[in-house]
Predict the 3D structure of the following.
Amino acid sequence: MADTAYAIEVKNLKKYFPIKGGVLKKTIGNVKAVDDITFNVKRNETLSLVGESGCGKSTTGRTILKLYEPTSGEIFLNGQKISDIPRGKFRRMRKDIQMIFQDPFSSLNPRMTVRSLLLEPLLTHKLASRKEANELVGEMIEKVGLSKEQLDRYPHEFSGGQRQRISIARALIVKPKVVILDEAVSALDVSIQSQILNLLIKLQEEFELTYVFISHDLNVVQHLSDRVGVMYLGQMMELGETKDIYNNPLHPYTRALLSAIPSLDPYEKKERIILHGDVPDPSNPPSGCPFRLRCPKAHDRCAEEKPRFLEKEKNHWVACHLFDE
Amino acid sequence: MIKKGFKLTFIFALLASVLIACSGNKETSGDGKDTGGDNKQVEQVLKIANDQEPAGLDPHKTPAHSSVRIYSQVYSGLVRFDEKMEVVGDLATDWEQPDDKTYIFNLREGVKFHNGREMTAEDVKYSFERIKAEETASHIASYFANVESIEVLGDYQVKFNLGTPDATFLTNLTNSSAAVVAKEVVEENGDLQQVAVGTGPFKFKEWVPDNKVVLEKNEDYYEEGLPKLDEVVYYTMKDEAARMSAIRTGEVDLTTVNPKSASLLKKEKNIDVKDYQSLEYSYVGFNVEKEPLNNQKVRQALSLATNRKAIADVVWNGDAVVSGPVAPSMGDWAIDVTKHELYSNDIEKAKKLLDEAGYPDGFDITITTASTYPDMVDTAQILQQQWKEIGVNAEIKQIEWGEYIDTWLYTSADVLVGRNGSGTDPDRALQYFFHSKGSANVWGFSDAEYDKLVESGETMLDKGKRKEIYNEAQEKLIDQSPNLFLVSPMKYVAVRDSVQGFTPYPHNGEYILEVSKK
Amino acid sequence: MYAYILRRLLMLIPVLFGVSVVIFFTLRIIPGDVAATILGTDATPEALAQLRKDFGLDLPIYEQYLQWMGGVMTGDFGESMRTGKEILPDISSRFAITFELTMLSAFISWIIAIPLGIIAGIKRNSKTDFGVRVVSLLGVSIPNFALATVLILVLALFFSYSPPVGYVGFFEDPITNLQILFLPALVLGTSMAGAVTRMTRSSILEILRLDFIRTIRAKGAKERVVIFQHALRNAMIPILTIIGMQIGVLLGGTVIIEQIFSLPGLGQLVLTGINQRDFTVVQGSVLFIAFVFVMINLIVDILYSYLDPRITYK
Amino acid sequence: MKEFFQRLVSDKVGLIGFIGILLVIIVAVLAPVIAPYSPDRMFTEHTLEGPSSQFLFGTDELGRDIFSRTVYGAQVSLQVGLIAVGIGATAGLIFGLISGYFQGKVDQVIMRVMDVFFAFPDILLALTIVAVLGPSLTNTMIAIGIVFTPVFTRLVRSAVMSVKENEYLTSAVAIGVQPVKIITRHITPNIMAPFIVQITLALSGAILTEAALSFLGLGVQPPDPSWGVMLNASRTYMEFAPWTILFPVSAIVLTILCFNLLGDSLRDLLDPKLKQ
Amino acid sequence: MAKNLTAILKGRGTLNTVLDIKNLSIEVNTKKSKYNVVEGVNLSIGKKMKYGIVGESGSGKSLTSLAIMNLLPDVLKVSKGSITLNTEKSKELTKLSKREMQKIRGNEISMIFQEPMTALDPLYTIEHQLLEVLKFHTNYSKKEMRELGLDMLNKVGISRGKEIFKSYPHQLSGGMRQRVIIAMALICQPKLLIADEPTTALDVTIQAQILDLMNDLSETHDTSILMITHDLGVILETCERVAVLYAGQVMEETTVEQLFTNPSHPYTQGLLKSIRSLGDHKNTLYSIPGNVPTPAQYENMGCRFSSRCPHAMEICKSKEPSMYTVEKDHTSKCWLHEEEGVAYG
């Protein structure tokens, strides 16, 4: 059933967070953080998930990593179904799938030296003897552009960019197959951001990595990804090759999103679509299409029926009634 | 919210100043020097600081001092001691003794209980039968164990039939607990712990727990003109500092104090400090059934190692006298122990005795005492030091009162430091505490000769001969040393100078019948 | 909100049940019993046995527990073994005193502590801050009973003042009542003040660094407005936690002060109860105190939602 | 660590506290050297004498040298504090870690039990425990330790929960680190700051609680000179011989003050929110 | 809203300035250390002008804005230079008393901050916090204040003003809060609005709403805007002039148009290059090597960009360059211009 050509397959994934209430703290509702999404990631590919805060892109990433238990749906990692493996058992498989976090300041344990931070994954998965591990750590730190001399320092002695390099080294040292990057460069300054992006691209080639890149920065996403999925309120609105998404966005939301990026060309004339209102409360989403309340092209059908997720063009999927005649 | 906070602060500050101002005013009026106002008569209210909350008010059931001092004002017995410790009539006007084993009491007529009913011979009979009844669990039941029957001969005449001649009978009757109570009150309330209806000079008015007990004048008291006070209030004040402060500022009129506080109060011009030699003595009790204290020589060695004078000096500020099993305040009954060999504090001899007993290097032992009483704790600490000199290493275990009693009762401690009231008759001091069947002989002490001696003392009606018997018993007891008898302290009562006619006696530290205020 | 309160009340049941079990069985293993303390050194084994039977102490221990709990469920806390009086009225009248003392102490400590904490917080690391911290901690550092004794002595010796003897209820004679309670409350308040000062200082410090304070300043607010309207109100939330906890601690911690100042409060009742092995009194009082304690916690939590609109209990 | 001391030195208040405690510890350790007499040696001819060259701080009601007793008192009082807090802190650490890390039912059970103990007023709980175990130095320490356990448990638990919010913990989970190592290597070192602060404050609390128990006669047993015992014994003689209370009171007040000052400034120093 | 170049040029060159910052330095002064975090900053903002300061984190851009408001944290203080506010009469802000400064804040100069989530007091209603500004600076009656407040909310695009009045900050979304904050900032009709990263924390669709709103309002209210951001896109979107801050110093100062078409300083060049190379899919991005120096390292490093500059020369490492005028209205702080022989300004 699963296709081993895919590093990751996600089928009808749902992740609901219960809202408790009442005298006995019963579940009285759900925040539908991820609501029935399906996609896959090919080997060595970079798939980006974009969307605004609260759209469920991070939750998706963390559910794939089994940091959250999925509410329903299936997840396959290299063809193996991992969604029903108990978390305790999955622990040993974690070396195949790693994660890099947004905040370079809180994602490294402040009380550990860089060396022990890097040794830990190796020793945890018993991938090397202590001596070998030490050598590997030395190699890895240089691969991410830091020096061996810096191994015995603590994270707070590094700048944000350097810390993010350490995080990358820590994630990659176990030679994973898949890396989930959750807003991995968003907290960095422009000049540092490009350094890290270069590093990520270089390492992807070197280690033959598959990336799931979660970001709200559309410029960075355009640069890095092979394919892009646009999420809104827990649902996938559009999914396709990067160039198709950026040059030929189909979904009104994708269009608005792309038009909202400030331009960097003083001579460029841009049709700006200003969306009104805010993202609705995910615990109380609108009926039908989740975007309809802000959609400039919304019509009656949008309120009644949830649009299907259809392959409108080759490898270009969209969930919108405008394209479902 | 914030503004409210400020307002409250302000109000509180105001309140605080008012309080202090008020208390300032009260100060002057409290002294009774305030001549203003139309009430020139001094309020005849005596305020007494009670160092413990009364445990209950049932005279037959409650031996605690904090209770006795109160119910002894409410109840009367058949007889009482006068100031010279002679037995005189109280509810009984007189009595006759047809034979050694029979007493007939003629009762005072027209004496009324506080509930208005007249007291009769039936009440006397009821009261003593109540004391003797097992379910009453009276602490003085043993005093009247040899009363075989009580007969009512008339409304005002009652007869006690004893099993054996008893020299202590009359003295025992003077005990405050041998009170005449009213049957209907007992029946109505189950017991007399919370109510008090007696024939004494004061009527029970109210008891606010942990706060105060109020007694008011019994207008129908059989002695004309007495009592002089309208009201007596016992405030429970457990803290010595609080009592000191209250007597100094005149918030209370009378309080017992410790020797050191007494010496300070003596300097105050508005306060008289009265003292009297108590009937109590401090002691060290030994479990004579356990090694090494089952060895008489060991006990004697410890007696020799004990410097009683130092204890008197240090613990009691010098105001205590060395005592034997019968406290010196019992007068003639007590032997002079100061010359006794075992009181000589001869360390060498003590060591020699220990050596003979087979403990040349001494031994380890635990001294148990009650944390409730600082004097006991201090005594224990001094003993610990003194015994160290002969190689006895003692550890101190301080336990609080409830556990202490338990420990005492079951002799679960090897060495127990405590204080005994030796009673008003040597029989209690010698038989009750040390007869092998004595109720309070918890030490496992058993000596057939001694037993015989004190038994004969009880029934010996000739005072001279009786004294001889008891002298011998005392000598024997000191020699055997089941307990070490230490010192008998002075007691101090501080009274405001507005209190008139107050004299404490060893047998009655709080005789307030004739007290008045000026 | 109501659901929340109801749920919290339901959660009290296991806690109080736990308290009842712990206190009941703990008391039973303390050496000594009420009969021994009543009879004292005049006790005879027969008399003791009789008394024990009277108090039901000869029954199996679980039966004693069930009897007691059965009573408590129906609002019958039993009778004092010592006095045979019903316990509940006694507990509630004494609780009133302890509660008044507690509230008065808490109040005094706020008056001392909150202004000091604000000053120290605003002038962080200055000499004033240093002074305030040391002074406020002095109160904490002196054992209650030592401070009480010194106070009593000094007032009596140098001002011929001692608080009136004999407790009088607030509604009988408010002035005398407050005179009686003022000193003990002052002693307790001083010792509480340190913690409140500390909490006030650190929460003021914390709040003052928050973004919205900068916004308020940027709006042109006077410092007074910044501190009192915004910083203090926000700081009140952690302060409230401390205050709630302290009131709870005080409720049971007034024992010593009650004894020294001869106040017939709940603490004294428990202490005498323990000393006299009056089990029913101790059990009842401790259960009562525990109940009040958890209720205070609940009230504090509800107050949060009043102070802080972000907190809505569902 | 070095940096920490630098910051401590720059904070005068904390430094005073730190030095003060150091002094007390030195005095406690060197008590046999410093004290001229054995603490329970009685000079029965010299009871309640004022300070003199022979008796630096005067003598108490049993003629013992108050100076020597105060010095040895440091030993006893510190011992009570350290061991009692050690018991409470260790138990609290274990329960708190388990409760905060695993949450769910374990957490519920532990926290309800702690709630039960928390619902007991401190003094009454200590009093009851001592009454059960019998008064002695060891039992006093055990009782205070038990009383402090719920406080530590709650503190550790909430610290664990806030550490769990940090991404480095998610990161450790994502890497596949074993739960035990997550607790020992990632959580425990990061909750130490509030834990240490609480320890310093609890130390002063323990000394005060011991004093309170001594007042009720249930603390350290004579002749061991804890400051609480000395204080309580001297209350009676305060007016007669003020020195008997003055010196132990000063010792206790200064020590507790120092602990509080240190704890107070540690709180500032270790609190990342207050770092500048 | 297309950017019209003539519109950009219109606002420029107004001699009449609202705010003049001359040679401003901000110093960290603790017992342990003392160094400048901002040094020698010169800015001048004309009436109705929209002026941008762009820089990376740690460049000192936010500190500069806080210095204008006199809201620097305790350990920081203005050590040199002047900040002059020209409204009815000119005032030297660094010399004003606390009280005088309080009258200016929120009234003549107001400020909005980055984090709309934390910038409002969580315990008070929007009404209280909005009208508070009026209470501080005007004598309006309660009714008048409410009317003004509702009107202002309407202007920032909140139509359900009465409802919003009763809400607490946590009940609003980020975009709504930022609108409220803008309303608060503009309600007293200030002459200058300082916006410190006003959209960084917002989603991109909301950012577009807010920038749009700010553009509209500054025009209708005659308010000058000082926009502080790390995002060159935002600068281009909103500003007329711009100063590029790096390591506490202004590296380049010019019109937005010139900056984007003719960047002169190697840092600006690098920055633009790296952003623009983002368009080339998966190719290696242009990136400025190395890290931003920390303030403690500033001393004796010559040009502060020298360690990362691809054109660095010997002199760059030892000596700090001056500000050169590279063309009309365009200055740049780089030794290269000395070589090129441009005029020293």
